[in-house]
Amino acid sequence: MTSTRALRSDAERTVHTILEAAERVLSRNPTASMEQIAEAAGVARTTVHRRFASRDALVAAMASWATRRFAEAVNAAHPETTPPLIALYQVTVNVLRVKIDWSFAMNLALTADREAAHVHADIEGRCERLFAKAREAGVLRADVDPAWARRVYYALIHEAAQSRDADADALAARLVDTLLRGVGTGQSLT
Amino acid sequence: MTSTRALRSDAERTVHTILEAAERVLSRNPTASMEQIAEAAGVARTTVHRRFASRDALVAAMASWATRRFAEAVNAAHPETTPPLIALYQVTVNVLRVKIDWSFAMNLALTADREAAHVHADIEGRCERLFAKAREAGVLRADVDPAWARRVYYALIHEAAQSRDADADALAARLVDTLLRGVGTGQSLT
DNA sequence: ATAACCTGCGACATCAATGATGCAACTATC
DNA sequence: GATAGTTGCATCATTGATGTCGCAGGTTAT
């Protein structure tokens, strides 16, 4: 039993290495071949096919993995029981940490996997509830369409996650500040 | 000469039809085949190959076309000679009109074509000069990193352009409002 | 009617990516 | 040292996308 566990652990380590390499390669070039992914992972192409029956299976595994990490990131912030502003910041930090390393896989989850899509839809709902609570608490403007606010939030997270070498805390602070106050001094067109 | 002009006009109409179809198809599925693009354009696959020597050539033509429209959109707003706030709004409206229909091709231009990349870099420079002027005019906060402000602006344009069926004027007004004032009521973390 | 031009269709060659398989070699466990 | 599990390598078949060509038919202007 000990041997089995050790050996399976080896295989799982390989799987993880491949997933990381796939994220790195596919984020730069979504049409990259299995060969290129294998090379980036430092393994033979046949090994990739041994671990993932097909290209779709590999992509699905990436979506599943990233979605799990995504859900964990949101849960860890306890957005339902924490004051809205704190929760917003905490969710942002946690999600950014994941998305900086799994940006491609997270975007993938929206379309590819049906189970992953369900989780994303669930999180979207929780996000909207958080925004609704923030609105009631007077943190968010009442004259802003909640759906638009959420889209802006997602867009900012996507943009911030492109900064690969930056500190997640600093990114999150700047992101939330921009989301709430914008980049202007106050005057507007309306 | 008259006949030649009429016939060439036919060919150019076909080219334009193919470009539009390619934008529609590739924006949904970037790995779609020439066959699918031809089908969407209502022409035979061989006709596509007659007009565009290769897939890369088609993609480059899309990038070139979208880049031209993009530059026109920016120029039409005269961002150098118009008051910053007005220019910001006008540029936003014009660019949104183009980007709603050519989102895929415009993203493409950043990497594919070297000439298109040059135009994009040029426009990015003009955008940063506009932001600098806005900052001096007191429209933009002085404590916000200009590069970050530009990235936020681009991200918002990208997000707003996803609303396919909306009015560009309304989108632009909401976009600029959000960019300048954010979605919050005033209090922040810092 | 004629000529120029364009298109659709069918056929063909090519090529790269995918996926499967057998075998030898390596490593860790017992 | 024997064993089980894993990997690398070489190899092969398959498939789908790409690109080319020739021909027949249709349109438009002269």
TrEMBL record, chains A, B:
Source superkingdom: Bacteria
GO molecular function, a single term: transcription cis-regulatory region binding
Gene3D superfamilies with a match to the protein in the record: Tetracycline Repressor, domain 2
SUPFAM superfamilies in the record: Homeodomain-like, Tetracyclin repressor-like, C-terminal domain
Listed PROSITE patterns: HTH_TETR_2
InterPro entries in UniProt: Homeodomain-like_sf, HTH-type_TetR-like_transc_reg, HTH_TetR, Tet_transcr_reg_TetR-rel_C_sf, TetR_SbtR-like_C
Alphabetical UniProt keywords: DNA-binding, Transcription, Transcription regulation
Name of protein: TetR family transcriptional regulator
Species: Nonomuraea phyllanthi
